Structure formats: structure tokens, C-alpha cells
Here is the input.
Amino acid sequence: MAQNVIEVKKVSKSFGGVKANVDITMAVRKGSITGIIGPNGCGKSTLFNSIVGYHPIDTGSIKFEGQEISHLRVGDIARLGMLRTFQQTRIYTKMDCVDNMQISVSQRPGSNSTMFASRKGEIRERAEHLLEFVGLYSKRNLISGDLSFGQQKLLEFAMALMNEPKVLLLDEPTAGINPTLINGLINRLQRANEELGITLCVIEHNMRVIMNLASHIYCLSNGKMLADGKPEKLQNDPRVVDAYLGGH
Amino acid sequence: MNEKLIYIGLAVFGILGPIAFPDYIMQFAVLWIMVIMATTWDITGGQMGYNSLGNITFFGVGMYVSASIQVSMFYDLGAFTASYGAIKPVFTESQYYTGLALGVFFGGVACSVLSLLLGLAVFGLRGPYFAIGTLGVAVAAREIAGTIEVIGAGAGIAMPFLPLPIEYRSAFFYVLCFIIAVIAHFVIRWLFKTQFGLAANAIRDDEDKAEAMGIPTLRYKQVGWAIAAFFMGCTGAVFGNMVGYIEPLEVAFPVATFGIFMVAMSLLGGKGTLWGPVLGAILFHVVKEATWTYLLGLQWVVLGLILIVNIVYFQQGIMGWLQAKYPERFGIAVDESTSASKGEA
Here is the structure.
């Protein structure tokens, strides 16, 4: 069996009286694309935030490559090689696209990014190639805040790739993107996974997207893990159908 | 290139200006000091979005550190200040210049070290809280300096005399100010061509995102402030010697004037740009001196008016406005090619 790169064991997190996550256990296999689904407010984003160290968890354990990370902060976890994108797209809005890309280089120890490194040469070339990969090359000199929402989303994805993470957690990558662009995005996600070897963990509401993309899906409901398994299995699971269509 | 013309123009002005108008040479020296203040303030203020109101702290600390070094290398500092100028020590030429060189350099170094320590505390604050916090630091520094007996407390320190004929005195300090301004400019110019510049802008645009991408933001903020502090310390050291007598309120820690001017100058010229603070400082100084000369009594009104117009109608400053109006001239344009590999597309 392939090695698990993320292992979440019995994680609970509450905000005041709201139990956002209760005893969540899940694992992400190295090199896979794993999906997380569930109705709004079921605790998907909270789980993401717990994994990347955005807030401390109440109980449980989170391991990244066998190392306990539940006590680490966001920056430390990012420097281990686990990145996330945001549901509300976040880019550096007053800088141009190339600059956005160039500052996203890996900050991991051993990577060749130093504080006073030159911006020419290899870094710039890679930035431009990745902008071409997401189809933003012609707009590379524009201020990123002037791009459309969908383009900003693509830029954020390209920035994450620039960082060469081991694991990338994507929070609703297709929300607010038009259907034509969605197909292109799915294709790029798959290529990033296959060609660059990046393990992906994706929160998604678009069932068509997630069923095509992921090899293993976890379904959350009311802060609890409801079911998990291959896409076909989940599609036919009455509990999952209930959670999405009936339930509340 | 446009920029070449700017450099030639500034060099001609910097070298020939004081020769052509020797009466204004001290004004020119102060002008370069203001340029240094505005450009170094912009490292954290404009480029990182950390609007410090306390950078003047380093001006004063550098001044006091330098004075202490200059005097105590050859005399007992405590006895010297306790005499309120009654002791008139004589410094030989070599004593004076060694003391001055070491004083200016270590005045800067001391400020860098201080800024690294202060940074640990104040960089936890954001937005207006950071501004108020740093303002508090400057006010505290001023009050503390006024209580330390060995540096003269409220009475201050009379600085050693420059061992040159009096007619060369102004020119000597002018040259020092000009040199520091030039070095500061080129250091900042280089700094913002490296990854550091991008990280600074990333922190300005979205610090949480920068942190989530693994950028060690605190370290960048500290380094940026330490560079600004170094130049402020050196400048303060030179200014102390130029004035000849230092005390906490007006000379070393002018919190409400120069401490605020440096922010106003950067905003006027366009914060977060290389040339904005330079332009802002020159304009500001010219307007300030003109109103002090021709509109005495109304000078603060005029300065206040400029500030209000600047902040209400013109927040991006002159350079920022130019960039918004003529984006193509700043390289902000759609490029029709769609491929990074040259020649294939």
C-alpha cells in the first residue's frame, strides 16, 4: 500500500458552541487526488484550516509525512511543503502577475530562494512557463488585481505550483469559474498531479468535477465523517445522497 | 533612458548647486537629509505597508550614540556633559575625524540592532496600531534621552568643533549628507530589484497569504526596518555634528516635525516607488522653505493644506498617479504573444 502523506486521526475542533469537526479521521495517499465533499457548513474548510495550521485543534493528531504538525503554525507547515489555496481567492493584488509568481518560489530549507536573490534567470523563466501553463502568459505584465475573478483563481493555482509543494490543498478551485474554463482547470489539475507529482486534496461542490478528478472521496456532514470510498461507491451511497439532497 | 537624465540632473544639482548658491548650502544639506528620511521610511512604510511614525527614533539614537563615541574616545563623557560646556576640549584633527567616522558608522549599526529588537515587539501590530506603537517608541525614546545624565539629559551635549576653517564647515557637512543620500538610494534601488522587494510588496498586499506561502514575514520586516534604521542612524550622527549642539526635544527627536514630514514626503511623491519619495522630499522642502520665507505665519496652514489635498484626493501620490494614468510607460500592458518559449508561438 502506498504511503499516506497526510494522516488525520480523531481531530475535533469547536468554535464556542459550534462543533465544526468531531472525531475526523482521514488519510491522503501520496501522489493521489483526494476529494472532500459535503453540504455547506459541514466543516470542510475547518478541516483544511486545521491541517495547514491556521488554528490549533482541540483534540486529535495530524501528521504530514509521519511528522506531527498539529502544533505548528501556517508558515512552518508551508515550509515543510504543504500549501493551500483559499476559497476567497488571495493573490497580491497590486503586483503584476510575473511578480506574483516570482515571490511564490519555495521557501523550504534547501531551496535556492534567498532574501536577496536576483529576480532574473531561472526563476523568471519558470514563472513565465507556469503562466503559459494556466493560459495567462499574455497578461503577465498586468496588475493582478485587475484580472477577472476566474483569471485570479488560475493565477493563484499557478502561484501554488510555482512553490513546488509536495501537497496542495485546494478549497473549491472551480467556484465562480465558467464551464469552459472548468474543463481546462480539471485538465491542469490532473497534469499537475501526473507531471509534477503533486499530491492534491480538493474541496469541491461541483459533483461532476470531483467525481472525475478524485480517486478517493471523503464526505462530511454536520462536522462528522459520513462516508468515504471510491467515487462510484459514494455516488450510490444513500447517506451521501441524503446529506446533499435531503437532510436539513 | 529617462532615468539616466534624472541621475545626471540630480548629480549636476548635487555638485553644482552648492557652488552656484553658497548661501543656501545648509538648506541643500537639509534637503538631502529629507531625501534620506523619505526614501528609507518608504522601505517599510510604502513598500511593506507598515506605516511607522517612529523612524525618527533612529535619527536621535544614532545622533546620541555617535556623540558619545566621539567624546568618550578621548574624554570622560560624564564630566564633559556635567560641565554644561564649561570644559572646552580640544580634539586634534585625527581625533576628530576618527571619532566622526566611527561615530557615524556605529551610530548606524547601533540603530540597526535596536530596530531588530524593537521589531520583535512592534511587528506584531498591524495597520493603525503599528503606527501608534512606533509613535510611542519615538516619544518614549525622547523622554528617556532627556533623563540620562551621562548624555547631558535635557541640557544636551555640545559637539566637538570641526577642525577646519569656518567657511568650509557647511560644505563639509553638505558633502557627508549628499554621500549618505546617494548610498542610501543605490542600496534601496538594489534591494527592490531582488526577491526582497517582491516579498516586501507581498507583505503589503496580503500578509496572511505571504505567510501561507511560507515567506518568513517577520524576518523580512525586521531586515527592512534595520536597513532604514542604519541610514537614519548615520544621518542623525551627521546632523548632530552639523548643528553642533544636540538635545532631545528639537534636535534629536523632532517627532512632530521631521518624524511626520518623512511620512508626508513619501505620500506626496508616491509611496512604494523608487522615485516618489525623492520627488516628494524635494517638493516638500521647496514648498516648506518658500512658505517659511514668504508666507510666514501661514506656513503650517499651507503645509496642512497640501497634506489634506494629498490624502483626500491624491492618495497614490505623484508617481502613483502617473502610473495609473500612463500604465504602458511602466510596462503594464497586455502582451499579444501567448507562449513563453520565444520564436515558437
In short: The beta strands of chain B are 157-158, 245-246. The first strand of chain B starts at residue 157 and ends at 158. The mean pLDDT of chain B is 90.
